[in-house]
Amino acid sequence: MDLYKLLQDVKNNQISIEDAEMQLKKLPYEDMGFAKLDHHRSLRSGFGEVVFCQGKAIEHLIHIYQRFYEHDTNVLGTRATKEQYEEVKKALPVVEYDALSHILSIQKKEINKTGCIAVCTGGTADIPVAEEAAQTAEFFGSKVLRIYDVGVAGIHRLLSKLDEIHSANCVIAVAGMEGALGSVLAGLVDKPVIAVPTSVGYGASFGGVSALLTMLNSCAEGLAVVNIDNGFGAGYMATQINRLAVRAE
Amino acid sequence: MDLYKLLQDVKNNQISIEDAEMQLKKLPYEDMGFAKLDHHRSLRSGFGEVVFCQGKAIEHLIHIYQRFYEHDTNVLGTRATKEQYEEVKKALPVVEYDALSHILSIQKKEINKTGCIAVCTGGTADIPVAEEAAQTAEFFGSKVLRIYDVGVAGIHRLLSKLDEIHSANCVIAVAGMEGALGSVLAGLVDKPVIAVPTSVGYGASFGGVSALLTMLNSCAEGLAVVNIDNGFGAGYMATQINRLAVRAE
Amino acid sequence: MDLYKLLQDVKNNQISIEDAEMQLKKLPYEDMGFAKLDHHRSLRSGFGEVVFCQGKAIEHLIHIYQRFYEHDTNVLGTRATKEQYEEVKKALPVVEYDALSHILSIQKKEINKTGCIAVCTGGTADIPVAEEAAQTAEFFGSKVLRIYDVGVAGIHRLLSKLDEIHSANCVIAVAGMEGALGSVLAGLVDKPVIAVPTSVGYGASFGGVSALLTMLNSCAEGLAVVNIDNGFGAGYMATQINRLAVRAE
Amino acid sequence: MDLYKLLQDVKNNQISIEDAEMQLKKLPYEDMGFAKLDHHRSLRSGFGEVVFCQGKAIEHLIHIYQRFYEHDTNVLGTRATKEQYEEVKKALPVVEYDALSHILSIQKKEINKTGCIAVCTGGTADIPVAEEAAQTAEFFGSKVLRIYDVGVAGIHRLLSKLDEIHSANCVIAVAGMEGALGSVLAGLVDKPVIAVPTSVGYGASFGGVSALLTMLNSCAEGLAVVNIDNGFGAGYMATQINRLAVRAE
Amino acid sequence: MDLYKLLQDVKNNQISIEDAEMQLKKLPYEDMGFAKLDHHRSLRSGFGEVVFCQGKAIEHLIHIYQRFYEHDTNVLGTRATKEQYEEVKKALPVVEYDALSHILSIQKKEINKTGCIAVCTGGTADIPVAEEAAQTAEFFGSKVLRIYDVGVAGIHRLLSKLDEIHSANCVIAVAGMEGALGSVLAGLVDKPVIAVPTSVGYGASFGGVSALLTMLNSCAEGLAVVNIDNGFGAGYMATQINRLAVRAE
Amino acid sequence: MDLYKLLQDVKNNQISIEDAEMQLKKLPYEDMGFAKLDHHRSLRSGFGEVVFCQGKAIEHLIHIYQRFYEHDTNVLGTRATKEQYEEVKKALPVVEYDALSHILSIQKKEINKTGCIAVCTGGTADIPVAEEAAQTAEFFGSKVLRIYDVGVAGIHRLLSKLDEIHSANCVIAVAGMEGALGSVLAGLVDKPVIAVPTSVGYGASFGGVSALLTMLNSCAEGLAVVNIDNGFGAGYMATQINRLAVRAE
Amino acid sequence: MDLYKLLQDVKNNQISIEDAEMQLKKLPYEDMGFAKLDHHRSLRSGFGEVVFCQGKAIEHLIHIYQRFYEHDTNVLGTRATKEQYEEVKKALPVVEYDALSHILSIQKKEINKTGCIAVCTGGTADIPVAEEAAQTAEFFGSKVLRIYDVGVAGIHRLLSKLDEIHSANCVIAVAGMEGALGSVLAGLVDKPVIAVPTSVGYGASFGGVSALLTMLNSCAEGLAVVNIDNGFGAGYMATQINRLAVRAE
Amino acid sequence: MDLYKLLQDVKNNQISIEDAEMQLKKLPYEDMGFAKLDHHRSLRSGFGEVVFCQGKAIEHLIHIYQRFYEHDTNVLGTRATKEQYEEVKKALPVVEYDALSHILSIQKKEINKTGCIAVCTGGTADIPVAEEAAQTAEFFGSKVLRIYDVGVAGIHRLLSKLDEIHSANCVIAVAGMEGALGSVLAGLVDKPVIAVPTSVGYGASFGGVSALLTMLNSCAEGLAVVNIDNGFGAGYMATQINRLAVRAE
Question: An example of a Gene Ontology BP annotation on this entry (chains A, B, C, D, E, F, G, H) (predicted)?
Fold first, then answer.
């Protein structure tokens, strides 16, 4: 239904006020132009689309990527398997795959990056999740500073990087095992820290729950947590924060 | 040890280079003036000091508040009991107590508030935690918009407040029970949402764990979580974000 | 805002179509008459209001009860303490309190009861939760058949009551400890069974979690579960089902 | 033993009263014609038989399906694997398999469908469980309205479907991840809502436990929960409710 | 209904066979004399009655004890509080209370004890639960051998008692903390061992769950477990086993 | 060291009393002939040996079976895989494998079976665990009565078998899902009931934990529990009880 | 029985070798002088006795303390309440109570302290547990270095104390909340670190479980963990290690 | 930056004191020669390097091993798969692989072993973890005494080995299932016991959590715990303790 048309009809007496009122009340929300209900679009606009590839059928995936490709849209696909990549590539040779972060992307337009987000990891095994966070942030236009393998068992390496980390608007702390990196970072820097527990570990690490609890119980100020292995979520929220800060520069 | 003095001694040949090098390597970190290790001070500077009152002895508390009072410093004490308030008041009649948020404060200087943080709750029982968040944010100079009792069981009330919420730089979602408010808000607004699960509930709510899990598993973008009932933590991080945004205005 | 008035203004050229469209899009949802968003009202209409008393301040409670009393509305207050009762009674001597179910009620109008809901318990310790369910169902106009203390350790007592239970449109099974009553009932009757685990028990009963898991894992067909001790929730849903059935008689 | 025959013998003095009493007391329950102990039969009668295929051996499965086929009985097999399907098909080419819901069925007689059950999902990944629920309900004679992918992260899509959902006698809410769909639906409609948590998710979703807890802790009225991924259980109970309602039309 | 009377009526043609068959099928199970459904009576017969005192109202308790007293029945009341004892004693001075085991008993008839059950504890803190087990076993006619404080941290004390323990027909192992006593005993003796985890402990003992898990995971043969702190259950089952053995002597 | 020899040397003055005393105190326990430390041998003696096959290497397994075979010993191997069977069979064609119970056995001598143990299951999926229990009991000389698929969802089937079950000295209740069979049996019979939770189930059954909790929380008397899927443990303990009873016949 | 006497009898032909052998095999272990079974005595010898006061009855406690006092033995009582202290003091005025560590002690002999153990805490709330550890270590003769409130949120304070910590033979890390102190210390020093999680915290700290998991999952080398709040256990084991090291000096 | 050079410049007036002070404060920590921050090096020095192989890419692994090989360094690689071994061997035929402990090592220099560590296991299935501990300890220069399969179900075998165990400076107790070995050992010996829970078990052993809890809750003194299956961690810490003791000999 067309709202403008309805009001015109009221004006032109082609519909009674009572009938128009009835129609408006039954109006499907979406048709009324409730763009405000999808404000996320504003963040993404001019950047591209995100696809959660995990569990998606190949044909479905090819279809999605082709449609975006035809509209000249950049695409960031998270949690893609190598098999998905190989099949999509046959249909659309332009796609690129990062085996570390499991990101399957098309970049048709150059992305202009601003501000700064620091992405830190406790160990080398946390890097895949960190790369998901970092590449998500870059996709949406943030500069990213990567500082990997600076966990508490080698805390002097972290201390030597502090000046660099202070230059960022937001810090992402990615760590499994004991997960103390989030606390340590929030204790050392005065910017918002988003902690990502990873499922890296064995024994009583319970697939990341141990790191998650450590991060939630941090006594340092300025730390919030996303789900286990949720690099995308951290990268997205860090971008929201970075944008707010960049407007000021 | 005085670093300047040491270097002078090197210059004046009163200490050999070898000995000076040795002393520098053994130097306690703090004495070197590692102010950069307490960057949080920059956020707080000009605002005041925070005291975590829970479990602190009365005498100890009185001592702390008196010292700050004498230095004309504003104080925000969280998780204070009524008993603590009454005893501190005897010694220092200027303290004020908010029975809802359990905040025990001294405000000697007017606080200039800027930007905007929206604090929302699912039910009325979540308000004490929300107030801890809101008053923390205000203490550090953020304007706060309070939108309470807009949980998913009455989602139309939330929808009617969306325009107001969109004006904020950061949203805090406080909810117990099923804790879905965080997801709903992150699905509707494009600003960072900090979710605070509360221990409100009964049965299988497990003291807030149910709400915590809901929030961690949100499929909406732009959401991070702090510990159960940690209003202070949410208010602090929201302030960090709000400051980044305010610099731009 | 008045929707009818707006459309009249459009018709009378007192507002441009563009401006009317703008106003409609920004219109708070509630003001548009979205009564359909509170369909629960239809269930309750003519019956009365529910108050969740747990944790509510005395003054607040007195205020609520007085307002409903003045409007000749029946009130069902759940989880009221004896202290709350005694204070409210001072202000409003007409309130009644059931110490077993912790229900604090005002009944100004006779309730006409129809259909039938069977409320069964495993043991005598489960009766408080069962009474919350039963009295909730009665408050909303359902007849209730109480069959208590028929748990699996004395299954012959349950078998002797089967004919009575078959006469109900819906069965509520309230049980703690091993919680097998829900399964047994769903295996014996062909009506929907709503199972309520209770926190009754000790040792590895974990405050009702053991009974909850038993009920969720039932291999009998036609069983769904509400939260631990949530008699109100079971009574409410059973009433919804009973109403659907009663329309047929 | 034949009860009628026994009584005849009593009458004809071919057995003493004492012996007859003894025999009656030792009588296996089933032989006494305790049809009332399998009332579920009445729900299914005229519809067909259900087979839980998971873990069943191929030969066993073929035997069951053939026997039902020869008796002209419809069969609904849940949780069948593709391998089971392919083997059964060799012996009985008439079987049909729905790869999405994992249902392996024979439909020899047309099913007359009445009433209405709405089956909603939070995301696309929840559809297999939803289809198990929907096809179960259809198998037992319910009309089903499918409304998929209307989770809280895109709540405006759900709102636009509310009128359709209100036409149902019972609503099934299928959701994983944060599982808030159940609460949202129960807050918006006044019919019984059966919530099915799904094991869809990652990180701290714990194979559906997070969604399960969310649903149990819902503060909306009129919601009960079945086991994780238990689409069949939800479809069965919804059918019981739908039948009660349909009798009225 | 009287079964004998019914059969007489059939014989005397005062009821048709068809009507008698109908009545028999609707007959409440209990009325048919299904004594076999309460076989536990046979264990208790000649011994007395058991009352679970926890949570029972004083008046209710007094009523129960008085009735048994008047029938010359021994009574074993478990989990009685001192308050319950003092009130019951006022009405019935003959009751006795064991503050250690929380057992409130009346012994009107001498109990003849046979066979042997060994009750062992890991520490002194486990003795209250052990006494509940021991006194339950004695109440039902078992001789009991008490061997307390022989946990694994002092395993040599246990070894020195092995000959005595071997004389029993059944062993009860009561232990909290690490709960290894059950395993050790089952590894050393060839009689059934019933393990009772206790809620004694702190830290990660989780109210007895740690001891429970230890006992369930025992790699020793001939061990089964009852609920945390369930001394009564262990004493009862040990008595069943002891009786089977005693018949042989 | 040879104890007899030592004493002889004392007698013959070939060693001083002091030295003999010293040697005795340092004597390795085993060498002293502590046969009493392996009393389990007495249960097994004349029956055979048990092998826990799970995880054992093929060569190791073949070696064990061959050694027992050469000594004319019966062997009961639990948790053997089909692969283990096939490899052992090549070396020792006499071994037999039961694919249901995963038992790999050699029976060289006829086993004389006495007494009676009833083994009941809730569903057909519990039969593998039940067979492990039943065959273990038979291996050690117990008669076994198998009563399968009598769970609470079809409780009338169980009731019709009660007389048979009463003839046993001990009852084993094997059940997964909601696990209520143990409670129901203990409520109906007066013999010791050993409950075995199984890992059968899905959703919130947590690999048998739900059934385990149900069984531990049973309010019926005379029930103890072994570990999840531990059919061997139940069969072994039931045999111990059966032996005690059989001595009486 | 007297072993020497027995051997003498053998020698003197007052008992046959066969009878002596029999007696030796049945000999209670303890009587054989198995002092080696209580090797812990060697650690304590010359230091004193330990009493676990928690839950002990007053009379019992007084009795124990008096007996040790009369034997001039030092006593270390852990987890004593203030009430226990006050009652024991009436009978034995010499006892001393440390309200912080809840230690109730008698020190009759001076303790000579050697070596060094560093006891560190994350926050001030962890001090009571740390003091239990420290005073236990001192009681058994270790020098203790206390370094409190050096948690990761203020890591620079910890770094400035490193040289002192390096002087210890063993480090005890006491921390609640996120519990990262153990990792940080083990990453920085090359001595064994014993980590004690404390139950300090709120929200998702779960009474110390969060800190416990953090410590177990530490990726730093040289760290082991004791139970939550188990200061005594840490102090005892640290003393064992310190003694081994001191022997070398 | 070169600290010596900077001080020289100060002395030679080539830099002002103010500038030198500034540079020192900004100096990356590492560049200052903070060797003291890697004290672990001192333990390893002269012994070799450790590689955690799990999850490492083959090329990466080959690179690491080749570099160490060229520097004549011994290498201990833990958690290596057979596949990793075979690939590394192709490039570097000198590597050796122990399939039991999954250790992939190069030993170029003879290791001189001192002191003694006893490594005990409960069952044979715990040996792989025990070997990881034992070989780690040997790699760093400790003598190791292996005492396997001495769990509590066969406690007499453990007792016969006590004298040997007492000769060690530190005991490692490796056990799964009920995990009681740690307690038993700590109760019998007076040296520090490091307990390693293993993931060996089934049913309610929860991948080692049951054994972990048993060990944490031990009431024996002198016991600390490392993570599930963490043989390396136990071997490392035992080596630290052994070294402290050896210095004394």
Answer: 'de novo' IMP biosynthetic process
CA distance F85 to C202: 45
Domains observed in chain A? 3-106 (no CATH), 114-248 (3.40.50.1970)
Is C2 at the interface with chain A, CB within 8 A?
no
Our CA-based measurement puts residue F182 at a distance from the nearest CA of chain C, in whole angstroms, of 10
Return the structure tokens found at E191. 């009689």
Return the bridge partners of B145, or none.
Answer: B118
ipTM at complex level: 0.82
Q: Secondary structure of chain F in the HEC alphabet?
A: CCHHHHHHHHHCCCCCHHHHHHHHHHCCCHHHCCHHHHCHHHHHCCCCEEEECCCCCHHHHHHHHHHHHHCCCCEEEECCCHHHHHHHHHHCCCCEEECCCCEEEECCCCCCCEEEEEEEECCHHHHHHHHHHHHHHHHCCEEEEEECCCCHHHHHHHHCCHHHHHCCCEEEEEECCCCCHHHHHHHHCCCCEEEEECCCCCHHHHHHHHHHHHHHCCCCCCEEECCCCCHHHHHHHHHHHHHHHHCCC
H 218-247 residues with CB < 8 A to E: 218-221
> For B101-156, how does the pLDDT look when each residue is reduced to its tens digit (9 = 90+)?
999 999 888 888 999 999 999 988 899 999 999 999 999 999 999 999 888 766 76
Chains D and G touch (3+ CB pairs under 8 A): no
Residue H39's pLDDT band (cuts 50, 70, 90): very low
Q: Does F37 touch chain E (CB under 8 A)?
A: yes
Q: Which residues pair with F103 in a beta bridge?
A: F98
**Residues in chain B closer than 8 A to C22 (CB atoms):** none
Task: Mark whether H and B touch (3+ CB pairs within 8 Å).
Answer: yes
Least Cα separation, residue H47 to chain A (angstroms): 20
**D91-134 pLDDT, tens per residue?**
999 999 999 999 999 988 888 899 999 999 998 889 999 999 99
Q: How far is A226 from chain B (nearest CA, A)?
A: 5
Is A163 an interface residue toward H (CB < 8 Å)?
yes
Indicate yes or no: CB of A153 within 8 angstroms of CB of G221: yes
Q: State if pTM tops 0.90.
A: no
F167 touches chain D (CB under 8 A): no
H221 to G234: CB separation less than 8 angstroms, yes or no: no
Helix or strand or coil: residue C173?
Answer: strand
CB contact under 8 A, E157 and G30: yes
Phi/psi class of residue E198: alpha, beta or left (left: φ > 0; alpha: ψ in -120 to 50)? Answer: beta
H223 Cβ contact list (under 8 Å, min separation 6)? G226, G233, G237, H173, H182, H183, H185, H186, H193, H194, H195, H215
* Interface contact C188, partner F, CB < 8 A: yes
Q: Are E80 and E107 in contact (CB under 8 A)?
A: no
Measure in Å the smallest separation between the Cα of B206 and chain H Cα atoms: 21
Token couple for G108: 């009759």
Which of A188, A213, A221 is facing G213, going by the closest CB pair? A213
Q: Which residues pair with B146 in a beta bridge?
A: B119
Q: What are phi and psi of C50, to 5 degrees?
A: -110, 140
- Which residue numbers in chain F have pLDDT < 70? 1-2, 22, 25-46, 153-154, 156, 248-249
pLDDT in tens, E98-148: 999 999 999 888 888 999 999 999 988 899 999 999 999 999 999 999 999
d(CA G28, CA D115): 80
Judged by 3 or more CB pairs under 8 A, whether A touches C is yes
Per-residue pLDDT reduced to its tens digit, F66-120: 988 988 889 999 999 999 999 999 999 999 999 999 999 998 888 889 999 999 9
CB contact under 8 A, G212 and H212: no
Looking only at the bridges linking them, the beta strands covering A142-147 and A114-121 are: parallel
